[in-house]
Write a structure and sequence with these properties.
Helix content: 25-40%
Radius of gyration: 19 Å
CATH architecture: Alpha-Beta Complex
Shape: globular
Structural class: alpha+beta
Oligomer: single chain
Strand content: 15-25%
Number of strands: 6
CATH class: Alpha Beta
Distance between the termini: 65 Å
Low-confidence stretches: 116-135
Order of helices and strands: HEEEEHEEHHH
């Protein structure tokens, strides 16, 4: 189900430290002073950061009805998501990833998110113990 601009704004501002502030005269959202996302009235899309240009290209290939770019963004790890096709789960997931990248460590620590939690979210072994038995040294 697609989202309204009001629903998008509510989701974006639900992230700790998120504020709304114009960027180059356009409605944008920041975490502290770092760019988080912005609405594009030109094509009714939302600018979202992804991990790499390769990831962006893969997302566009997988779902061209939702994701696209313009020439302006072709050299950046960003993607445009058409608001009419964007759902809340996809938006939250992409914003959560971006938030973890740019939110100040102090803020992450205050709310219980930090390097240890980051590994838990991204590790393919998340939830499994990585402790090994210590090796014996010597010949006893």
């Amino acid at each position: 189900m697609s989202l309204t601009k009001a629903q998008i704004k509510k989701i974006v501002l639900s992230f700790p430290g998120a504020i709304e502030k114009p960027s180059y005269g356009k409605p944008a959202f920041l975490i502290e002073k770092k760019f988080f996302t912005r609405l594009r009235a030109d094509d009714d899309s939302l600018v979202l950061f992804v991990g790499s240009i390769d990831e962006r290209d893969m997302l566009i290939e997988a779902d061209p009805a939702l994701f696209h770019i313009t020439d302006h963004y072709k050299n950046y790890p960003t993607i445009l998501a058409r608001i009419a096709k964007l759902d809340a789960k996809t938006l939250r997931g992409m914003l959560e990833r971006r938030w973890k990248e740019i939110a100040p460590k102090k803020l992450q620590k205050e709310i219980g998110v930090g390097p240890a939690a980051e590994k838990l979210f991204t590790s393919p072994d998340a939830g499994r113990s990585t402790r090994r038995k210590p090796r014996r040294v010597g010949g006893s």
